[in-house]
């Protein structure tokens, strides 16, 4: 890895952090509607995963998708515009926080029904397999999603058909407010992969380099024809499940413990201790991220609302004479 | 013109489209080795191979979910549900995913998916395997719903559906696979979202679709003997619903009966009736009559089941009522 690559990972994690902090403010002001699920604390997961993927690898995730979108290469201006529901947003203001996508970046969303995108991911991989392309579909979901039927149907199909999928379970310890100890038959999610005959691994999701290296290895094996693999990434979200979370299910001490060993601080320390980057260089990157977010908010605020006469656009691909 | 059965019409459409476009493939329970539980895909496996004629697990969310993913990635899957009743196990993927993805991501993804699903009662399969929930699926913008009533339309609509870039639920009726009719020679498609006058008449407009088309034809033959001249408008598509030919017919008959196999409450008849009143109230000479299934979970007992299902005699009675 070149120095620039190390710095870019840092920049992306900081940019996600700033994006999310700003989104929280905009939500409290009422500029962002609906639900808002922040990625704060989990930045190293998608940053590491996306740093390891190749262009032909598809990425699909759940509703906590802003960070994944940024890492996948979606412009921060367009992400912010989507949060504000603007026509310039990545999904033209029709999807909002939970439904960001950019097919040109091989990022397939942003899916808000828990686990429903898991069989869809199998289908994306099926197309690649049938067309003999060497892409791997990376499907991310929370540990809470491993309790719903779609998960079991999707991973079963992927193994039965040996589809090129990397299943990535982001275990942030709580499905909304319920921990696996209360909701899951097994507390180690990785055990579920064994039931479907898949190689299974786990990795520290607060260590961006560990995630990146692990995912690179997994993708290489899948690309060689190993069939689907399962990766549990242990992580933690510092904020509530969404903006309306009373957080009665965990203690402040527990949260503090994770924040003190957070992914950005850890990577910061790694870069300076290993003398890969200086404090000054990292401060510059923080400032760069601040400026990008400032510009993104300006872009989003100045962007037009969707026009009334576009309400019915894109219900179908083919125009209908008889109406919808 | 050849005379073939509904089953042959559907089978021919699938075969011809698979020959025409290598991206078209079939997936579903027992579509391959078995040849389809209704023998629609008999011989397909030997000719097209297991990659394109895919036997799936008995897992409807996986079938529809993965078909959606494959469609998003450029394939043209025809996913078969063994019966329409199993669509409920894939409900989220049909209404929350297939019907939403194009719109919700601002038009950047397409879901060129056909879901084939035979429904209907009359085969003593009891309440869970005998439903006609067509109206339910027609409720959702983003999904197209077609339900042919003749072999000609069965073939033409299926070919059009496979060539369409939109997700389409193609509803068959399991009791009329042996119904025979003329189909044009060579390649043709039937437009989606276009109703059709299947029989011209001047006294009363009989609006119907699917299995109730042949029933309505029989009723019209009987009524003709008594001097009542029935015009039959076959909706063919429920969404988009083409009211043009219905209103045109009603404006010269001033009387209408709507016949469907599903339950009356919140059904197709309710929708069509409301639209006639909205669009042609000044032309109404008699209260519109609805013929539908009685409001009961269909029983196993042969006599009770037939008692609950709409019969040719019910249509005749309703027509006479509006002619009073």
Give an account of the 3D structure.
The complex is a heterodimer of chains A (324) and B (324). Chain A has a single domain, classed as Rossmann fold (3-Layer(aba) Sandwich), CATH 3.40.50.970. In chain A, helix 1 (3-29) packs across helix 2 (43-52), helix 1 (3-29) crosses helix 12 (279-302) and helix 5 (117-130) packs parallel to helix 6 (149-160). In chain A, strand 3, helix 6 and strand 4 (165-171) form a beta-alpha-beta unit. The relative contact order of chain A is 0.16. Helices cover 45% and strands 10% of the residues of chain A. Chain A is of the alpha/beta class. Chain B has 324 residues and is an alpha/beta fold. Chain B folds into two domains: 2-183, 3-Layer(aba) Sandwich (Rossmann fold); 196-323, Rossmann fold (3-Layer(aba) Sandwich), CATH 3.40.50. Helix content of chain B is 37%, strand content 20%. Chain B contains twelve helices and 14 strands. In chain B, the strands form three sheets. Chain B has a seven-stranded mixed sheet with strand order 3-2-4-5-7-6-12, sandwiched between helices. In chain B, strands 9-11-10-13-14 form a five-stranded mixed sheet, with helices on both faces. In chain B, strands 1-8 form a two-stranded antiparallel sheet. In chain B, helix 7 links the parallel strand 6 (144-146) and strand 7. Chain B is globular, with a radius of gyration of 19 Å. Classes of the chains: A alpha/beta (324), B alpha/beta (324). Chains A and B meet through strand 2, helix 5 and helix 6 of A and helix 3, helix 4 and helix 5 of B. Chain A: GO terms for molecular function: pyruvate dehydrogenase (acetyl-transferring) activity. Chain A: This is Pyruvate dehydrogenase E1 component subunit alpha. Chain A: One of its GO terms (biological process) is pyruvate decarboxylation to acetyl-CoA. Chain A: Heterodimer of an alpha and a beta chain.
């Amino acid at each position: 890895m070149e120095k620039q690559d190390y710095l870019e990972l840092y920049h992306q994690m900081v940019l996600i952090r700033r994006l999310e902090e700003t989104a929280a403010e905009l939500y409290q002001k009422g500029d962002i509607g609906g639900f808002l699920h922040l990625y704060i604390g989990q930045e190293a997961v998608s940053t590491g995963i996306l740093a390891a993927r190749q262009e032909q690898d598809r990425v699909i995730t759940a509703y906590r998708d802003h960070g994944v979108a940024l890492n996948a290469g979606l412009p921060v201006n367009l992400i912010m515009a989507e949060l504000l529901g603007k026509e310039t947003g990545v999904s033209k203001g029709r999807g909002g926080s939970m439904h960001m996508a950019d097919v040109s970046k091989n990022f397939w969303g942003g899916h808000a029904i828990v686990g429903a995108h898991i069989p869809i991911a199998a289908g994306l991989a099926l197309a690649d397999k049938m067309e003999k392309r060497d892409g791997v579909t990376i499907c991310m979901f929370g540990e809470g999603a491993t309790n719903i039927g779609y998960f079991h149907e999707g991973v079963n199909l992927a193994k039965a058909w040996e589809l090129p999928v990397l299943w990535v379970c982001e275990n942030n310890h709580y499905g909304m407010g319920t921990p696996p100890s209360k909701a899951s038959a097994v507390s180690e999610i990785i055990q579920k992969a064994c039931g479907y005959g898949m190689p299974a691994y786990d990795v520290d999701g607060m260590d961006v380099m560990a995630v990146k290296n692990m995912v690179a290895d997994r993708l290489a094996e899948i690309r060689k024809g190993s069939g689907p693999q399962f990766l549990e990434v242990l992580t933690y979200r510092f904020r509530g499940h969404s903006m309306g979370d009373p957080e009665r299910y965990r203690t402040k001490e527990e949260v503090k413990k994770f924040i003190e060993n957070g992914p950005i601080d850890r990577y910061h320390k790694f870069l300076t201790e290993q003398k890969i980057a200086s404090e000054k260089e990292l401060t510059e990157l923080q400032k760069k991220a601040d400026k990008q977010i400032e510009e993104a908010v300006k872009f989003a605020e100045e962007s037009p609302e969707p026009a009334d006469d576009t309400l019915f656009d894109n219900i179908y691909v083919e125009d209908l004479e008889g109406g919808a | 013109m050849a005379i073939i059965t509904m089953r042959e019409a559907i089978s021919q459409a699938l075969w011809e489209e698979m020959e025409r476009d290598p991206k078209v493939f079939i997936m579903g329970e027992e579509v391959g080795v078995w040849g389809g539980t209704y023998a629609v895909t008999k011989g397909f496996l030997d000719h097209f191979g297991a990659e394109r004629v895919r036997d799936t697990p008995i897992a409807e969310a996986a079938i529809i979910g993965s078909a959606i993913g494959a469609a998003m990635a450029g394939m043209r899957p025809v996913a078969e549900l063994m019966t329409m009743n199993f669509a409920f196990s894939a409900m989220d993927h049909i209404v929350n995913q297939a019907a939403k993805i194009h719109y919700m991501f601002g038009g950047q993804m397409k879901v060129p998916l056909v879901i084939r699903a035979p429904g209907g009662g009359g085969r003593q399969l009891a309440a869970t395997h005998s439903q006609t929930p067509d109206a339910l699926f027609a409720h959702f913008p983003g999904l197209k719903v077609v339900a042919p009533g003749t072999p000609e339309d069965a073939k033409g609509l299926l070919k059009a559906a496979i060539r369409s870039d939109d997700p389409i639920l193609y509803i068959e009726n399991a009791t009329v696979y042996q119904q025979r009719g003329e189909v044009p020679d060579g390649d043709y498609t039937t437009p989606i979202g276009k109703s059709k006058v299947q029989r011209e008449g001047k006294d009363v407009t009989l609006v119907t679709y699917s299995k109730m088309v042949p029933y309505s034809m029989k009723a019209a033959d009987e009524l003709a003997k008594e001097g009542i001249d029935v015009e039959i408008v076959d909706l063919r598509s429920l969404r988009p619903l083409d009211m043009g030919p219905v209103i045109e017919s009603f404006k010269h008959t001033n009387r209408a009966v709507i016949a469907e196999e599903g339950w009356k409450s919140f059904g197709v008849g309710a929708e069509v009736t409301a639209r006639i009143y909205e669009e042609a109230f000044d032309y109404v000479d008699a209260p519109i009559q609805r013929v539908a299934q009685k409001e009961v979970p269909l029983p196993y007992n042969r006599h009770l089941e037939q008692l609950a299902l709409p019969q040719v005699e019910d249509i005749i009675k309703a027509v006479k009522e509006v002619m009073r």
